[in-house]
């Protein structure tokens, strides 16, 4: 992928940060705009560089990291639940090599699935900052449970197409300065957390289930009620970008994410690592997609749904720890 061309830069930055003391590390990272998204050097933009016009991106001020390509007359529009934003550029590139007629004409979004569902209900219209635009979805991707619910609600059309699974991990700053070793540690008042907001992000349900397995309802309440109330848990809106960013800025010491997200951060050379969650306490997500009801490009949507469960697509997902879907309930 194109973002790997910046790996040497990120590795050097990570070494500088890792070499500092825990306290100095947090202060240094706060001042580094290069740790702010977007993180992939334009790789997730399905418009040729020569056709992009003025390049105006200020990572800590003007940044549309979860919106990719051009919404002007696309041939295919994809709404991805955002926790594999890092894989989408390679997925799109591989699809376009198989189907050259789509080259440079795919637009996609990678915000949380609950927000994407709201955008679908709004006819594809969304506002970010002072900008409002409309891009009606052809395919919607989320957890299998949400896709089935969306079929029942008439938002998308059957069948649901599952393709990969994912598991949870605890993301921490490099060096794990808070010495987090398990989910149970997250209930400690002294450990500052950044956690996905269950109101927007499907991962919240799996995290609560995992916390319950590790420490019962008391741990769930400590993380998602007591610590939210006292400010030691920050709730995110886009966990797949906010969690590592807040950890690198020193605003939090741990947060639960999908394993794939931690693998991406490490591949990118960011000062992030993760603490494994044992199988007995973990949760597994099943990712699925479906054609959106009234999709502008239904044939293209079906073509993409065939592609995303193909060996070429699954090989891309496997780079980040996803596993092919083998069947079973969500």
Automatic annotation (TrEMBL):
InterPro entries per record: ModA/WtpA
Gene3D superfamilies found in the cross-reference section: Periplasmic binding protein-like II
Keyword annotations of the record: Signal
TM region(s), chain numbering: none
Signal peptide: 1-26
Name of this chain's protein: Substrate-binding domain-containing protein
Organism: Candidatus Rhodoblastus alkanivorans
Lineage of the organism: Bacteria, Pseudomonadati, Pseudomonadota, Alphaproteobacteria, Hyphomicrobiales
């Amino acid at each position: 992928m194109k973002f790997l061309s910046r790996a040497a830069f990120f590795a050097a930055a990570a070494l500088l940060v890792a070499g500092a003391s825990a306290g100095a590390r947090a202060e240094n990272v706060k001042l580094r705009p290069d740790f702010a998204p977007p993180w992939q050097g334009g790789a997730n933009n399905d418009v040729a560089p020569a056709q992009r016009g003025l390049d105006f991106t200020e990572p800590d001020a003007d940044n549309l990291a979860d919106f990719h390509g051009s919404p002007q007359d696309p041939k295919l529009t994809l709404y991805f639940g955002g926790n594999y934003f890092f894989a989408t550029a390679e997925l799109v590139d591989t699809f376009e090599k198989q189907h050259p007629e789509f080259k440079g004409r795919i637009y996609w979004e990678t915000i949380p699935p609950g927000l994407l569902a709201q955008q679908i209900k709004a006819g594809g219209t969304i506002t970010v900052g002072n900008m409002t635009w409309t891009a009606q979805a052809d395919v919607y991707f989320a957890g299998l449970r949400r896709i089935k619910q969306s079929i029942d609600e008439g938002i998308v059309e059957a069948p649901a197409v599952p393709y990969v699974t994912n598991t949870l991990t605890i993301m921490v700053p490099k060096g794990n300065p808070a010495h987090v070793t398990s989910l149970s540690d997250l209930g400690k008042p002294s450990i500052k957390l950044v956690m996905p907001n269950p109101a927007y992000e499907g991962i919240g349900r799996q995290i609560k289930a995992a916390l319950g397995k590790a420490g019962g309802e008391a741990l769930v309440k400590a993380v998602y009620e007591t610590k939210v109330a006292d400010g030691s848990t920050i709730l995110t809106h886009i966990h797949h970008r906010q969690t590592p960013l807040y950890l690198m800025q020193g605003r939090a010491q741990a947060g639960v994410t999908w394993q794939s997200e931690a693998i991406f951060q490490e591949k990118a050379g960011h000062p992030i690592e993760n603490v494994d969650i044992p199988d007995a306490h973990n949760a597994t997500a099943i990712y699925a997609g479906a054609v959106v009801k009234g999709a502008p490009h239904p044939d293209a949507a079906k073509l993409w749904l065939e592609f995303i469960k193909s060996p070429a697509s699954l090989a891309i997902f496997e780079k980040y720890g996803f596993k092919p879907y083998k069947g079973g309930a969500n």
